[in-house]
């Protein structure tokens, strides 16, 4: 039976070289000779080649080079940056109560803002037909409306930039053959998540435009849809950043030990805690729960407030009771800081590469900075600049957690 021949070509000077090598490889294959081994290709295995010829009797398959991997890694790092910008801008839009100013959603038509006085007045009249104006902003002027409209417009346009940043380079890299089979599936999933994120954003906005005659509360989007919108953005950000770090950062060959195994597990658990804490912040923002108890460490005069379980059934309190939502966010934040502190001290007991040590120190510093920002935001009754900085800090903390996970990841055999 003819064996599979894998021949990495280390220096290709042009197409003429391939033409000279191909007949020789065919003759060697006919006589049963083999080159190299039959080990499967892994990213980064051939660091100096531009393509690998896989001779199987059915043609040649081109595989991505190390330079192509770095290009894809830089692209995904840039994409994660655009997603971070969208999350930060979305938080500012929520804090300035601008998210319900645009009452329509059109993929192309809404990209052109109003330019004349008549167009602005028509847009303002559409806004006046919805609950936020009738209940909350009934005395708003046209100039004030323009401010909140441009805030939401900027968020939506940035979302379109994110989509283009994913889809257009993905199509280019796919056509150039720079994506391995596994990377193609991952890129398709990321592009699909970007499109889903845009639809989920409009689904969220619609919940704040609905008339609720039985409710006396101020108009706001559903905290469930807000959390879903933020959660999908965080998943997109984490997946893009993790993939880019996997492609750009060389793996450390760490000596496997019981302590390293515990450190790796704790790093994964800590990253999950940070993600969950950031997600719980969406419920805090959606219910304005940061304005309920503006004291720390106690909530009012007690450690555990009496109105934690005022809703029925009990499970509703976790997602709909502002007191419980703030209490849960506090507990998750304190638990995250505690876990990160334990992770740091455990990392000091293990000989780690310099880059991994820097990641652990960065994670610890960001954790305490984020906790200080959260407490300050609470005590000062949620000022917009400080609250926006606190929301941005959650992304920085999550990034540091992913960086440390990447430094500690296991080298495949």
In short:
By secondary structure, the chain is an all-alpha fold.
Report on this model:
By secondary structure, this protein is mainly alpha-helical. The protein contains twelve helices and two strands, in the order βαβααααααααααα. A two-stranded antiparallel sheet has the order 1-2. Helix 6 (181-209) runs antiparallel to helix 7, helix 8 packs antiparallel against helix 10 (322-347) and helix 11 runs antiparallel to helix 12. The longest helix is centred in the middle third of the chain and has 35 residues, at 142-176. The model is unreliable at 1-62 (pLDDT under 50).
Shape: flat
Q: State Rg.
A: 27 Å
Helix content: 55-70%
Unreliable stretches (pLDDT < 50, length at least 5) are: 1-62
Topology of helices and strands:
Elements lengths: L4 E4 L6 H16 L21 E4 L10 H30 L21 H11 L3 H6 L5 H35 L4 H29 L13 H26 L9 H29 L29 H5 L1 H26 L6 H26 L4 H24 L6
Antiparallel strand pairs: 1-2
Helix pairs in contact: 2-5, 2-7, 2-12, 5-6, 6-7, 7-8, 7-12, 8-10, 8-12, 10-11, 11-12
Overview features:
mainly alpha, two-stranded antiparallel ribbon, 12 helices, flat
């Amino acid at each position: 039976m003819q064996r599979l021949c894998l021949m990495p070509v280390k220096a290709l000077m042009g197409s003429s070289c391939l033409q000279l090598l191909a007949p020789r490889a065919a003759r060697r294959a006919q006589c049963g000779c083999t080159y190299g081994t039959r080990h499967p290709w892994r990213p980064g295995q051939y660091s100096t080649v531009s393509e690998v010829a896989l001779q199987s009797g059915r043609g040649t398959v081109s595989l991505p080079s190390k330079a192509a991997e770095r290009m894809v890694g830089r692209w995904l790092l840039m994409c994660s940056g655009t997603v971070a910008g969208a999350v930060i801008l979305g938080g500012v839009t929520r804090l300035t109560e601008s998210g319900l100013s645009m009452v329509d959603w059109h993929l192309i038509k809404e990209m052109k803002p109003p330019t004349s006085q008549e167009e602005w007045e028509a847009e303002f009249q559409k806004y006046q037909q919805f609950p936020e104006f009738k209940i909350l902003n009934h005395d708003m002027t046209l100039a004030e409306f323009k401010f909140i409209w441009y805030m939401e417009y900027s968020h939506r346009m940035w979302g379109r930039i994110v989509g283009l940043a994913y889809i257009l380079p993905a199509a280019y890299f796919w056509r150039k053959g720079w994506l391995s089979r596994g990377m193609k599936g991952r890129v398709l999933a990321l592009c699909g998540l970007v499109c889903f994120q845009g639809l989920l954003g409009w689904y969220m906005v619609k919940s704040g435009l609905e008339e609720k005659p039985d409710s006396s509360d101020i108009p706001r989007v559903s905290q469930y849809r807000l959390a879903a919108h933020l959660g999908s953005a965080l998943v997109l950000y984490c997946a893009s950043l993790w993939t880019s770090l996997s492609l750009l950062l060389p793996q450390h060959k760490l000596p496997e030990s019981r302590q390293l195994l515990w450190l790796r597990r704790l790093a994964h658990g800590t990253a999950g805690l940070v993600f969950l804490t950031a997600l719980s912040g969406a419920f805090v923002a959606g219910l304005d729960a940061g304005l309920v108890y503006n004291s720390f460490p106690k909530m009012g005069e007690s450690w555990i407030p009496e109105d934690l379980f005022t809703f029925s059934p009990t499970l509703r309190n976790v997602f709909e009771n502002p007191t419980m939502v703030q209490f849960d966010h506090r507990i998750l934040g304190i638990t995250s800081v505690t876990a990160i502190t334990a992770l740091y001290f455990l990392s000091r007991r293990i000989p780690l590469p310099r880059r991994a040590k820097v990641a652990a120190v960065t994670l610890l510093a960001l954790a305490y900075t984020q906790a200080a920002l959260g407490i300050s935001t609470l005590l000062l009754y949620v000022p917009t600049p400080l609250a926006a900085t606190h929301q941005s800090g959650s992304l920085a903390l999550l990034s540091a957690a992913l960086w440390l996970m990447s430094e500690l990841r296991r080298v495949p055999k």
